[in-house]
Write a structure and sequence with these properties.
One of its GO terms (cellular component) is cytoplasm. Keywords: Cytoplasm, GTPase activation. By secondary structure, this protein is α+β, with helices and mostly antiparallel strands. The chain contains 46 helices and 31 strands. An 8-stranded mixed β-sheet has the order 2-3-4-5-1-29-28-27, with helices on one face. A 5-stranded mixed β-sheet has the order 10-11-12-13-17. The chain has a 4-stranded antiparallel β-sheet with strand order 6-7-8-9, with helices on one face. The chain is flat.
């Protein structure tokens, strides 16, 4: 590959640009670029062209419709400078990097530095906005140069810092990058705010720079900064002794100095040294500089301070002399002296070690900056323009890439561009054209700026180091391969790698025709010289998605031809060449096979393969060597699957179309073609860990065309045999295609065609390898069965198993017939040699012959045949299971509106549906409970009432008749009870209209599918096992999201209806220890510490639920513990159901996780008293959280120390439990707690919206039942709670509800005393709100008045009572109070007062 002068961009509207720059001088000649100042950004995003006072800023844009993709379009036209004499002399583009952004996105913005003849340096944005300006020296600016940050290249080199250089005739100004770029960013922000009308532009602060002056050189035209110059101690001491006398002071170490290489005249090349941190300037100069800066700053901020108000004459209009920074002189230590030679330009290499100097005599010199000597000289380059190219080697196996340096010399007079290898290399390339005579060569030796010493991953280098611009507006870059810097011996591999890169770039471009790509590949491969790169090229072409099959075949043929032409004896070539040769042979075989199957794949399908051809079961049985019963089962299963699948919506999937190139690459990349080959005849294997998508793609390519066309299978067999692919790999791919192919309407014809195809594949292998002996298992068929068992499409796996068994039986029969034929031939030959003797006849019969001669009487069944029969039976059940599980139980929205008549819940929780993919190997690996788990997971998405899942026809209920025969319950009665989930002796709460609540269509369909599955899995899907797994699914879902209490409630609902008491007991133990115990304990401890319902943050942190969800969580815990208690009692009665049986699917399998049902039945019995203690705790905490009852340390207040120690202990243990006689203090605390709960429970009574419907007290009654239950357990008199309930009902105005509870009170006297206070409060309220207050008070007895006055207001705020109700209540009090009681007389006085008030009310109404 040679060097390139490649166009990469053009200038759009070039004539418009020239017209603006030259104004009246337009049109101009072809030499117009020589008069302009040019600068291209190192990132290639901006181009600046300036002429005199006019400047154009061009921005790059990508244009995919043009041959040269990038164009520079003018974005800003500017007129710069203060007056006509102030013209542009130099421009420079500074791409600034933005921290926090990727450098691949380009610079954040580009600053444009412009130097003027007045000495000013101005900085602009890419939009032409002036940012800052300052005059650094009074002479015209000659050059603007820049240095970007770069880390040290070696241990002896110095780190390059960011600096901007402004060169004058006798002065070099150095601007530090950090301060300059920070100032420019701040100025840019100020300009943006000013444009947004947010304020005025603040003047930029003065720039900080160093100013070095040249000495001992007459004329200076150009200079370059080489950075810090290091010197050893010997050279330093020698130089000091030569320059100074014996007694002079000297430093022991060499000082830090910066080297500046300047060219011009006398000397021709001067080496100037500037002392870092040089001598301080004189005080006078420093004071004048400070005063000048201060005056400039104040004058810009407040104009007029230093200007006189008087009118000035013409002589005073001259400007004051500009005061600038003082010059620090540099020392010219030595130089290259030549009186006749005049230096024109100097360009320094990127590593700062070499410089290229062009002179007026047509010479270009190569200078060593450190030694100060000329290394090389080139002649014949007048007015030369130079640049440097730094090329890196492609580091594939090297730890660090090597770097080569090239010098680019452009000679306008010779109309050529030459490239030279350094330091003593030859010319590697030369370009000559008509458009190069008046062009400009630009060298951009810097990268990003503003990095602040931040390292970039790929280095901070210019993307366009050397750019050539011709007068027509075309920009070209120079590309030089690395291998041109090497010798012939070392450059072979590097040259080949470069050729490979160019070929890859050519192919990836995508703009070429097929023939062009083939020709490029052929040319590149023909030029390759090393075997390693040829192997790499073949591998690259085989793995690139841009490669064409014809191109790869061409490359393979070229490599084979080169190898065979050089080496006639293949055995004598080296290992690398052998590997390449065998790789080419493999690829050639694969490509020919690919072309054949690709051609077959593109053919239209045959009519008979896509139209259903319904054959009879007997015909299929004969063709597939299968029993007729098995074929009938298959056809029935197909009809069932079609019926089930027809009611569901198919899942939409997105598939991307593959072009021919990607299909070819996928095909080749799946096979092992590059491994070391010791034997030429070794077969081709598939690669390991190939993705399923690739396997499916190549299997469809290889077999779809053959299966659905009328192609002769003999042709396919011939190409498959020549391809060298392992027959077992062909078998795997064929099965993969069959298992993943789309379902068709002619499955019978497909099965017969696929059977013939598998027979052809098996014929490619040795029959002895495929068919083992009758008492052994074939490794071939074992691998085939493994593939079928791993398939996630059980139905197609079933059909594949039937087909493979037919092929296996056919091969066994052929092998047996061949064996019989060979035995007969052997016997006949032996009989000819014998003399018909009896002994000889006896010896001709062997045991094997006897076995094979009895074929007509006995059928020989091999172990493989038995394995096939077992596999087919397993796949039959699994195919139906897979079909059902792929049906979405609830196809509607997120919340199915299901009303449960038995539980009263608005709907049952349903989990999100996720389509399950199952295989036989997964089922067997997950153990005997996998089917139950899968179906339960599917049912959890349906939202079914768990009571509907109890089926009395299940096998587990077979022994129930015998177990309950001793009881009087009739079977019909038992069936009615169990079918609705009713337990004998349980109190029924029947809701009105519950019988009319029917299931919807989707739930009915779900139950039908479940009944269909139970025919195949009667033991795994029995009611108890299924409900237990369903409960576990809900509990696991709640465990993952504790705030979703609906899942917890659904799990408890499933747990409550498990028919088997032993199963229910064991499942409760598992749920308690795994899911509920820890969160319930955390809730109890949190309530104990807080003494009330905590804030939301604490609840979420400790329990995982909010404070509003805490009562519902405790209610669920209470329901669970009640269910656990009932199951514990019922499990001790000794009745059990048969639930530990499994289907035949598991007869030959063992291992896997233990089923949930077995774990539940294996749980030990729990301690009923300990469980009852936890029930008490749950009920108390539920009351406390529901009514926000505040109790200090409730566990200590309501339970003694023994009970607290037993809390949350292992339920199977027997810790010490509290006695039945609690202490007086504990009893009092419990009584006060229950009384507060009763008071709060009465507040739950609500009015019914329907007029005349009365009050709804069901919730209050439920709470009262719980209070009485706790009171009975805690040994508290229930009559106290009833009196409190009656008083609270009367106090709240619920007189009618209170009258229902009054007869249940035993201590009527105490109740009457409490009710008398309520009557007094009502009377007091009536008096205070009456208009005749004084008159009525005057009629009251003094004792009654003082008693009423002492009462607190306690009547109901809703005033549901009336005067008649109060009178009736007072009568009740008189009825229960004894006549001798002190309160009896008070009640009589109150009765008289009520009579008077009622009479006056009646008179007022009349």
């Amino acid at each position: 590959m040679s060097c390139l002068l490649r166009p990469f961009a053009t200038i759009g509207d070039i004539e418009e640009v020239k017209r603006f720059l030259y104004k009246k001088d337009y049109p101009v000649g072809r030499e117009w670029l020589q008069e302009c100042s040019l600068s291209v950004s190192s990132m290639g995003d901006h181009l600046v062209i300036a002429h005199k006072r006019y400047m154009v800023i061009l921005k790059s844009k990508w244009d995919s419709h043009e041959e040269v993709k990038m164009k520079y379009h003018p974005s800003v036209y500017l007129q710069v400078g203060d007056d006509n004499d102030d013209v542009v002399t130099a421009v420079l583009c500074l791409p600034l990097f933005a921290h926090g952004k990727s450098f691949h996105c380009g610079p954040d913005w580009t600053c444009i530095a412009v130097g003027f003849s007045s000495g000013y340096v101005r900085f602009y944005t890419e939009m032409g906005n002036l940012l800052a300006q300052e005059i650094l020296h009074t002479d015209p600016v000659i050059h603007l140069k820049c240095q970007s940050y770069e880390m040290t290249r070696s241990s002896t080199a110095q780190e390059q810092t960011e600096e901007v250089y402004v060169m004058y005739k006798s002065v070099l100004c150095v601007l530090g990058g950090f301060g300059l770029f920070q100032t420019l960013r701040a100025c840019r922000s100020q300009v943006a705010r000013a444009k947004a009308n947010c304020g005025d532009v603040v003047p930029a602060p003065p720039l900080i720079y160093k100013k070095w002056g040249f000495q001992d050189q007459a004329v200076i035209t150009d200079c370059e900064m080489a950075g810090l110059a290091t010197s050893n101690t010997f050279n330093h001491l020698m130089t000091t002794s030569l320059c100074q006398d014996f007694g002079a002071y000297y430093r022991s170490g060499a000082p830090q100095m910066s080297l500046v290489v300047a060219v011009g005249r006398k000397p021709f090349v001067g080496f100037h040294y500037a002392m870092e941190g040089g001598a301080p300037p004189p005080f006078k100069d420093m004071a004048m500089a400070v005063a000048s800066k201060l005056k400039s700053a104040i004058g810009q901020a407040v104009p007029g301070w230093f200007s006189s108000t008087k009118k000035t004459n013409g002589s005073d209009k001259n400007k004051d002399k500009v005061v600038t920074e003082p010059v620090e002189p540099m020392l010219c230590r030595f130089g290259l002296c030549d009186a006749l030679r005049f230096g024109d330009r100097v360009v320094m290499s990127p590593n700062k070690t070499l410089s290229a100097v062009s002179d007026g005599l047509g010479r270009v010199l190569l200078i060593d900056n450190q030694k100060g000597i000329a290394l090389r000289m080139w002649k014949g380059y007048r007015n030369a323009q130079c640049g440097w190219l730094e090329v890196q080697e492609d580091a594939h196996k090297r730890e660090q890439a090597r770097t080569a340096l090239f010098l680019v010399i452009y000679s306008p007079n010779m109309n050529c561009i030459d490239i030279w290898a350094l330091q003593h290399g030859s010319r590697v390339a030369s370009f000559s054209a008509d458009d190069t005579k008046y062009g400009r060569l630009l060298y951009i030796g810097y990268g990003f700026l503003g990095l602040n010493n931040v390292l970039l991953k790929d280095g901070n280098r210019s993307q366009l180091p050397v750019v050539f611009i011709d007068p027509c507006g075309s920009l070209k870059e120079i590309v030089v391969p690395f291998h041109f810097a090497l010798s012939a011996k070392d450059s072979k591999r590097t040259r080949d790698i470069h050729l490979l890169k160019e070929m890859k770039r050519f192919i990836k471009s995508g703009d070429h025709e097929e023939e062009e790509i083939v020709q490029e590949v052929q040319r590149t491969v023909s030029e390759l010289q090393t075997v390693e790169v040829q192997i790499q090229t073949i591998e690259t072409l085989a793995s690139s998605r841009y490669t064409l099959p014809k191109a790869l075949l061409t490359a393979v043929e070229v490599c084979k031809h080169k190898l065979t032409e050089k080496n006639r004896d293949i055995q004598s070539i080296d290992a690398s060449s052998k590997t390449l040769l065998y790789m080419c042979e493999r690829l050639e075989k694969l490509l020919r096979f690919y072309n054949f199957v690709q051609e077959e794949h593109q053919k239209p399908p045959k009519y008979s393969t896509v139209v259903p051809d319904h054959k009879s079961a007997q015909n299929l049985s004969n063709l597939l060597h299968a029993p007729e019963r098995e074929v009938n089962n298959l056809l029935n299963l197909m009809n069932t699957i079609e019926t089930v699948s027809g009611k569901s919506q198919s899942e939409a999937r997105v598939a991307f179309r593959h072009d021919s190139r990607s299909a070819f690459v996928e095909f080749v990349s799946c096979f092992e073609i590059g491994n070391h080959i010791s034997n030429e005849s070794q077969m081709i294997d598939l690669k390991k860990n190939v993705s399923e998508d690739k396997i499916q793609s190549i299997s469809e390519l290889m077999y779809q065309g053959t299966l659905y066309s009328d192609t002769s299978l003999d042709d396919w067999k011939e190409y498959a045999h020549e391809s060298g692919i392992q027959p077992l790999e062909l078998m795997r791919l064929a099965l993969h295609f069959w298992l993943h192919k789309r379902g068709g309407s002619s499955i019978e014809a497909e099965m017969l065609r696929f059977t013939a195809l598998l027979k052809v594949i098996c014929s490619l292998a040795d029959v002895d390898i495929i068919c083992a002996e009758y008492n052994e298992l074939s490794s071939w068929w074992r691998e085939v069965r493994r593939v079928l068992m791993d398939s996630a499409n059980p139905f197609m796996a079933l059909t594949g198993a039937i087909i493979c068994r037919a092929v296996a039986l056919s091969l066994e029969k052929d092998k047996e017939m061949k064996h019989l034929a060979s035995s007969k031939n052997k016997n006949s030959s032996e009989n000819d040699n014998c003399n018909d003797s009896d002994g000889c006849q006896d010896m001709s019969v062997t045991p094997d012959d006897e076995t094979h001669s009895s074929v007509s009487e006995w059928e020989n069944v091999s172990r493989d045949t038995c394995q096939w029969t077992l596999l087919i039976g397993q796949l039959e059940d699994l195919a139906l299971l897979d079909t059902v599980l792929k049906q979405k139980p609830w196809p509607g929205g997120e919340e199915p509106p299901v009303v449960l008549a038995t539980t009263g819940r608005p709907h049952m929780c349903h989990l999100p549906y996720k389509r399950l993919s199952i295989s036989l190997s997964d089922i067997l690996k997950n153990g005997k409970g996998s089917v139950s788990e899968l179906v339960a997971r599917w049912l959890s998405c349906a939202g079914l009432d768990p009571r509907r899942l109890i089926d009395l026809s299940d096998i587990e209920f077979d022994n129930m008749e015998q177990q309950e025969g001793e009881h009087d319950n009739s079977p019909s009665h038992r069936q009615r009870l169990v079918s609705v989930g009713i337990t004998e002796g349980e109190k029924l709460d029947v809701e009105e209209g519950a019988e009319a609540c029917l299931m919807n269509e989707h739930h009915t369909h779900t139950l039908d599918l479940l009944a269909l599955l139970k025919h195949h899995f009667p033991y795994s899907l029995s009611s108890s096992v299924l409900l237990a797994n369903l409960c576990w699914e809900y509990m696991f879902a709640w465990h993952q999201s504790p705030d979703k209490l609906e899942a917890l409630e659904a799990g408890i609902a499933c747990l409550q209806v498990v028919p088997s008491p032993q199963m229910k007991h064991g499942l409760c133990s598992l749920v308690w220890s795994t899911h509920l115990k820890h969160r319930f304990e955390a809730a109890a401890n949190l309530l104990h510490k807080a003494g009330k319902v905590p804030k939301e943050r604490l609840c979420v942190q400790e329990i995982g639920i909010s404070d509003l969800q805490l009562p519902m969580f405790l209610d669920s815990c209470l329901q669970f513990l009640d269910t656990f208690m009932d199951a514990t009692v019922a499990s001790g009665e000794g009745r059990s159901l048969s639930v530990l049986r499994y289907e035949e699917l598991w007869d030959c399998e063992s291992g896997g996780p233990r089923p949930l049902a077995e774990m539940a039945l294996a749980q030990p019995p729990v301690s009923a008293p300990l469980l009852h203690l936890h029930c008490q705790l749950a009920m108390a905490l539920h009351m406390m959280a529901s009514f926000s009852v505040k109790i200090t340390r409730p566990l200590s207040a309501l339970f003694d120390g023994v009970a607290q120690a037993a809390f949350f202990a292992d339920l199977t243990s027997n810790p010490q439990l509290p006695g039945h006689n609690p202490g007086a203090k504990l009893k009092s605390s419990r009584s006060q707690f229950l009384l507060r709960v009763v008071r709060a429970a009465v507040q739950t009574v609500r009015g019914v919206d329907c007029p005349g419907a009365g009050l709804d007290a069901r919730q209050a009654n439920q709470w009262m039942s719980k209070c009485h239950l706790l009171a009975d357990v805690w040994g508290i008199d229930g009559d106290v709670l009833r009196r409190q309930q009656v008083c609270e009902l009367y106090a709240n105005g619920f007189d009618h509800l209170a009258e229902e509870v009054v007869p249940a009170v035993s201590d009527s006297t105490s109740l009457a005393s409490q009710l008398l206070v309520i009557v007094g409060q009502r009377v007091k309220h009536m008096l205070e709100n009456s208009d005749n207050f004084r008159e009525w008070v005057s009629r009251l007895s003094p004792s009654l008045y003082h008693w009423l006055k002492s009462l607190n207001e306690g009547v109901s705020p809703c005033f549901l009572w009336s005067s008649e109700d109060t009178t009736q209540l007072l009568a009740l009090v008189l009825q229960y109070l004894p006549e001798g009681n002190n309160e009896y007389q008070l009640a009589l006085h109150m009765l008289d007062a009520m009579s008077i008030m009622n009479e006056e009310d009646d008179n007022a109404r009349s």
